[in-house]
Amino acid sequence: MARPKLLPDNFTLCLVGTVVLASLLPVHGQAATAFNWVTDVAVGLLFFLHGAKLSREAIIAGATHWRLHLVVLLSTFALFPVLGLVLKPLLSPLVTPALYAGILFLCTLPSTVQSSIAFTSIAKGNVPAAVCSASASSLLGIFITPALVSVIVTSQAASGASPWHTVWNIVLQLLVPFVAGQLLRPLIGGWIERNRGVLKFVDQGSILLVVYAAFSEAVNEGLWHQIPLAALGGLLVVCAVLLALALAVTMFVSKRLGFSRADQITIIFCGSKKSLAAGVPMAKVIFATHAVGAVVLPLMLFHQIQLMVCAALAQRWGARDISAEKRAAQKSATAAVARR
After folding, report:
1. Overall number of domains in the chain
2. How much of the chain exceeds pLDDT 90, in percent?
3. pTM above threshold 0.85
4. 218 alpha-carbon distance from chain centroid
């Protein structure tokens, strides 16, 4: 039986189910402490496996395209924060202060890696450059995101720790396992490539664990009493507006700067997306425990919207390129017959 087109993917359904479970059966007390320890271990394992998976050859192959990478990084770490701040008079009335803090946090996050590369490939873009840009964005985000949060997120949702303390915690929990994975790649890289399902399981499983722990704490603090239904509808509008503006700006800028079509596709997909896999663990480190649930809610919604929109764009652009290739091949064949 074919899967209905409007039905979200299995991971999104699991995310929704996790939020529902945390709302009905939140973990608390000693169990919450033990659960937080388990999530720390899972997140560390996630970044260790990502480090072991990352191909140095692919990064070197795309690293020389510095203009493209600069545009992607500026879109990710400059355009989004500017949009979040400039549009505050229009966006903040639609949501609660806690959700707006989550929107600003969303704007500071690095680009996603797997889906950016996948969509670039489907749309016939520059895949090596996408690998390099998305990977560099993810790595730099470990340092840039907490710095941006300390500057633009001024709500009480922040943990109150100094930016350097936050960066140090992120380095210990995320960067150290990542570097360890890179160092051990010669030994375990082959096994990782042959068992990609393991990485996917750890990737999605760790996110679900953190989401459950975050929403459990938030529910215990009265999250759903603080967020009215109208604010959730407003949040949907805000996420859609942010994504539409990011897509429009990256399309316009990449074209005006004279990039090839393949490079334009890479800039659009890498420069308009935000990473759920990096964002949820970072929120756990950066924000106060009771605030994490409301902070990651905009990211979860934005994640699903970006997947649906970018998947449609990638399939459309990829099909257009295939059609163009077929027309060119037919034209070439006709010309060859005419010469005979």
Report:
1. 1
2. 22
3. no
4. 22
The CATH number given to whatever domain includes residue 265 is: 1.20.1530.20
Phi-psi domain of 109 (left: phi exceeds 0; alpha: psi -120 through 50; beta: other): beta
Distance of CA 304 to the CA centre of its chain: 10
User: Maximum Cα–Cα distance for the chain, whole Å?
Assistant: 84
Residues 141-170 pLDDT 10s: 888 888 888 888 865 455 555 556 666 777
312: helix, coil or strand? helix
d(CA 120, CA 5): 21
Q: Is residue 27 part of a domain?
A: yes
* Domain contains 33: yes
Please state the φ and ψ torsions of residue 229, each to the nearest 5 degrees. Answer: -60, -35
In the structure encoding, which two tokens stand for residue 106, read together? Answer: 């969303």
Give the structural domain span for 306: 11-322
Read out DSSP for 244-259? HHHHHHHHHHHHHTT-
Q: Which of 22, 38, 40 is nearest to 30 (CA)?
A: 38
